[in-house]
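tool_call: predict_structure(chain=1)
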Amino acid sequence: MKSVVLTLSMFLTIVDLTGQSVERFIRIIGNSSYTFESMGTRINFTVNETVKSEYRNTENSSFEQSLIELKQKLDSLSIKGNLIEKSNFKFDVSQKTKSKEFYIDIEKQNEVDRIIEIQNEKYLIKNFTYLYFEPNFDIEDKLANDAINDAKQKATAICLKLGKKLGDILNVETRSNGCCSYISESSNSIDQKKYSVTITFELLNK
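tool_result:
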């Protein structure tokens, strides 16, 4: 668990105006983190209508022909997944051609590598994005517990230095709820989520 800067504040509250009894509180920030690995890759294609060109080494192919050829190539590789339409037609005025964007979601990296090899001017890979899991509340519960334990460890260490004893938890605050409810597609194949809690402990004399 990566260490994050600890902020510590001591609050003194007078409970007896004669000064005979003083209660002390210690407020600690606890942190935890979890690194998620992507569960798949989204390959974004541009399917193009092409015209014959020696310079570009292209042949005449209508948009429909290019799309059919791409689907046949994917079938020949036994790629599981549907080619999903992503955009409306775009028109190249100078070439008098049209194109449209599609994507397909792939789970296995070796399938991604094979798809890269089949691209050409008729169907070009535009970019890749990485996909993540459905909401996972078990992981968020673990992050919360780890952050609380982190705060306890820090508070205990400080109490030893102060010659005090750590008492009960009096208050817990967090703004990290929902941190793992959703991770959107990303250009990164890993995503680290952090969880933070602020805990007020009772500080006792030994």
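agent: The chain has a mean pLDDT of 86. Proceeding to next step.
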